[in-house]
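Deadline looming. Please check this record:
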Amino acid sequence: MNFNKKIKMGTCYEQRADRTRFIIDEDYKIKQEMIETIKNLNMKKSEEDQKIFQKQTTIDLPPDNNKPPASQAKPAQNTENVIGRNRLKLTQEYDPEGQLGVGGYGQVYLVRHKKMNLLRAMKVIPVKSKTSGEKTEEEIELLKQLDHPNIVKLFEYFSDNDKYYLITEYCKGGDLFDLIKKKKKFSELSAAYIMFQIFRALNYCHNTHHLVHRDIKPENIVVFRKNNVMEDLYDVKLIDFGISKIFNKVEKNNDNRIKGSLNYIAPEVLDGKYNEKCDIWSCGVILYILVIGEYPFVGRNKSEIIKKIKKGDYSFPNGFIEKSSSDIRELIGKCLMVNPKERISANDALNHSFFNLYDANEFFIHVTPAFLNKTINNIKKYETKNSLQELCLTYFVHNYPNQDDIILINKVFSKFNTSNTGKLTKEELKKGLLKYLFKGKKSKAAAEKEANTIFNKLDGNNNNGIECEEFVRAGIDKKLIKNKKVLKFMFDFLDKDRNGEISFEELKEVFNREDGNNAESEKNIIELMKSIDTDLNGQISFEEFYNMMLKLIDGLI
């Protein structure tokens, strides 16, 4: 198909002699409406924002009992333990800064944490029925389990009678859609770097969690920074798991309702029978757009577009074949195979020659040898005295994902996690130590011994793998938390009612002991409190908490 000559009634193009400008009519209108809305907002405290914030109140919801039971206080270090419902009023914790976007599943606002001055995104989801409330709870439970550098993090949530307020990571670079509008087209190198990260996130979702996203599109990919290794490289993250679904590896999901955005939707989704491979199709569409600047499937109306999607009827514009690598054309083709069985997987895509051609992985995992050595040395020294110290480190790492050192340690983790599953195996750790740190004749035995020690130390939830945040909290320089403001932030997380002291009941809550049936775990928490509560009043004050954390920090520096 000649894209410069053929008339596209369903898509708006500005014809020019040198290029075809990419402006998608339907998406563009939505974006323009959103931009106009934002222009009319007072970016500090708009009237609409104030209504959202003033209306939110706390209600007595039952505790979250969907977490796995545990027999000791120690496993409370897991990431999902530090994400929960905040019982305070939203206005006590956050100030509104403006509206970021409007979608089919709610509105997104920019908010600022009052005490820590942290910018965050807040997704407001209306609860129209019991079913919609349950779906939101499912999304929250899902987000709690996701721990990957290329997936936006959920920090906490609030709720009232008719809305949920999800507080998530804010990525100041905007979404990929806006970047596409601004740049029009990307170099193959830049496209490779972006898509490599998206495939990494999907490989983690598909293979570690058996999760299909179902709405992969540029609006659901956000830019959190420009990479400092080379110009025109962007670090991105995947967002919006509102219509995600656990899939069966053997059987196809049967769902007659179309999920996702038409231009990115896979042919099998239109038939209501699909699995995780529908996400790969969407990736193929995005890769095509990045380097060509237009959709691969266009038509005068929706029925024409659907017909072309079902047939896989697309082609490259004049001149593209001569100017592009065969690798990118092959990868696009493998992503846009109509038969999902013939379509490439996320794991195979990561190993495709297109990414090797541009060293996408090397750019992504680049850290200096000195920083890598420093990280491993911190891990070797890492040892907490009690589960509360470990929980607080978990909370810090989870809530500061864009801190420079944490970004770099994520890269060290990815350097070792060669399978790109988001879960580091003992064998990968051993091979990484051998490759980057150990030299000489006895290096293999030394690497194996070190790997065993580190693995047993970091695999706190005993799932035969080290998650990213488990690795990061051991690898960070503990001086980063030797700050009274940061330590007070951790303390407030534990002090649920903000009365200035941490009670037994509050510790029991964060350690997942809501049922009250585990006498052994309660005994452990009582012993833990006794070791910290120096004035023996049955509560932990900030001063007692501060002294406990200083002992940890000073012991590891």
